[in-house]
Amino acid sequence: MASREQRIKALRESLAKRIVVLDGAMGTMIQALNFEEADFRGDRFADHPKELRGNNDLLSITQPDAIREIHASFLQAGCDILETNTFNSTAIAQADYGLEAQVYDLNFAGARIAREAADAATERTPDQPRLVAGVLGPTNRTASISPDVNDPGFRNTDFDRLKNAYSEALHGLVEGGADLVLVETVFDTLNAKAALFAIDEYFDNHGIDLPVMISGTITDRSGRTLSGQTAEAFWYSVRHSRPISIGLNCALGAKELRGYVDELAQVADTYVSCHPNAGLPNEFGGYDDTPESMAEVLGQFAKDGLLNLVGGCCGTTPEHVRQIAEAVKPHAPRKTLELPVRCRLSGLEPEVIGPESIFVNVGERTNVTGSAHFAKLIREEDYDAALTVARDQVVNGAQLIDVNMDEGMLDSEAAMKRFLNLIAAEPDISRVPVMIDSSKWSVIETGLKCVQGKGFVNSISLKEGEESFIHQARLVRRYGAGVVVMAFDEKGQAETVEQKVNVCERAYKLLTEVVGFPPEDIVFDPNIFAVATGIEEHNDYARAFIEATRIIKERFPLVKVSGGVSNLSFSFRGNNPLREAMHSAFLYHAIKAGLDMAIVNAGRLPVYEDIEPDVLERIEDVLFNRRKDATERLLDIAQNVKGQARSKKED
Ligand code: THG
Q1: Best mutation site among 436, 461, 566 for ligand 1, i.e. most ligand atoms within 8 A of its Cβ?
Q2: Residue segments in the chain with a per-residue pLDDT below the cut of 70
C-alpha cells in the first residue's frame, strides 16, 4: 500500500495534468438514511444525557458501515479525494451535544473510515490513487462577529479557543490517516486563521507537512463572506499558510458562485477549487440542482479555465459527482498563476502595495500616546467617539490605520482587543488593514488574535537580541501579518545612515534566511527622530533617515520603508501649520528617496508646492542640515507660518 508521501506526490502530479475531483455532500446523504435517536447513540452512547440525533459526525463511531458506504459510493462515482465526516468534530461544535470529550475519537474515526474506503478503491484503480482530506469545519461560532446586537464588541468565542479546538481535531485527523487538511466553509476568516495557526503549529511540533486546502463560503449575493470580506481579501488573509488550493464551497449554487471563483482565479497563485451546493436550499430544505444542470455549469467553469479541483457540497449525490467528473474531464486544469510580487494586505477589502502604487498613508490618530483626545476617549471608554477618530482617518485617505494603546494607566491588552473587535463591526473602518502598534509583545499578540484581515505588526526589533526577534517574527508570520522592523538593536536606536542600514541589513538576513519571511511583507522603519531641537547631535536625523531609505530600497527593492512622520516636528508642538509644512517637505524628499508609506495624520498634509518659498527653504535647511543656523532661522519665522491652503487629499 502506498504511503502518505506517495499519495501526496501522486496528487501533485494529477493536479499538474488534470482537474481533480472531490466528493459530494456527506450531510444530505446521511439525512436520506433517516437514522433515529437510537441509531445515532449506538451502544457506546446509549446512556448519554443529551439528545444526539443530528450529530452526523458521531455516526463515524456508531454507524461506521453507513459512513463507509457513502464514501464508497462517491469513490465509485469517480472522486479522487474523500472529505472526512468531521465537519462538526470540534469541541466548540460538539458542545451542543455534550460530546467535547469525544473530539479526538470523532476525528480519528472519521479519518480512519475514509482512509479504509479510499485505500480499498485505490486497490481497484491503482492508476487513480484516492486521498483523504481531513475536514476542519467552521464551528458554530464566529470570532469576528458579535452574537449580541446590543454589543458589537462582544464575542462568544475567540482565537485561542478556536485554535485549541482545531489542534485537538487535527490530531485525530492526522493519526486517523488523513492525507491533507481541508479548512472549509469558511464564513469568518478569523476562525480560519485560528485553524491555520493550529495547523502550522501542529505540523511544526510533529515534523510533518501535509498539504492544506482552504475553501471559503459566500453566503449571499453581496459577494462577501459572512464576516464581510471580498473573495480577494479573503485570499490575502490566508495566503501566508501557502495552501495547495483556495476555493469556494457551499451556500450559493454553482451558477451564483461563478463571479467569485473568477475573482479568486485571478489572484490565487495556487490551485483553485470549487464545490458548490446543488443550488440554494428550497423551502423544504432540499436542493434542486440536478446532476445534469450542475455538471453543465461546472463544465463551463472548467472550459473557461477556472478550475483545478471540483466537487459538490450540500445536496450533491454520487450521481452529481459522476456527472461533474465527466463534464470537466475534457478540459485542461486552470493554469497556475505567477503573481507579481507585492505586499498584499486586506481588511474587508484588498490593499495591494506594489512598487508602482501610490504612497501609502497610515492613519496615526488612533494612538493613545500620539493623541491626547484619543487617549481621553479610551480612558473614559467612550468607544463610539474613538471609532469616529478611526473613521475620520479612513475618510481622510488613510489606507491603513495604526492602533496603539500603550499607556501606563490602561489595560492595554483589553483596550486593544475591545477597540479592534469594535472596528470589526464597522465596515467603513474595517475595510482597511490594521497596523497593530505596541512596544509590548503581549499587546501585539492580543491584537493579532482580533483581526481577520492581513495587516502589520508595528513593531519588532533586534533590541532584545536575535532569539526573541526570530521568535516573534515566526509568530507574526504564523498569524499571517506583515511586519514593521524598527532600526533598533542591542546597542540602541540607529541614528547614523550607516547604523540604520546595518541594522536593517542584519534584520533582513535573519527574516529572509532564518525565518523565511517574504521580503515584500517586511517594512523597515529607519527611525524618524525630532529635528531642530536645539541639540546639535539631532541636526542630521532627517537627512540620515532619507539617505538610509535610499540605500535600503536599493539594496532590498522588495521591502517597504516607513516612518512615523509626526515625530519629526516634536520641537514645534503647538504650531500645527509649521509642523504640517515640515511633514510635507520631509515626505516630498523621502518619497523621492523611496519611502513607501508613513504613519501620518491623514488629511493634514499641505501640498509641497503650496508651502511658502521662504518657509520651505528654511525647513529644507533643517531637513538636510545645510547650515549651522538652520534651527534658529526656522524658529525666527515659526510663528508666522500660515495654515495649509489645500490639503493633499483635496489636491
Ligand atoms: N515608527 C513606527 N511606529 C510609530 C512611530 C514611528 N508609532 C507611533 C509614532 N511613531 C507615530 N505616531 C504618531 C502619532 C502622533 C504624533 C506623533 C507620532 C504626534 N502627536 C501630537 C503630539 O504629540 O504633539 C499629539 C497632539 C494631540 O494630542 O492631538 O505628534 O516612528 N513604526
Answers
A1: 566
A2: 1, 355-357, 644-651
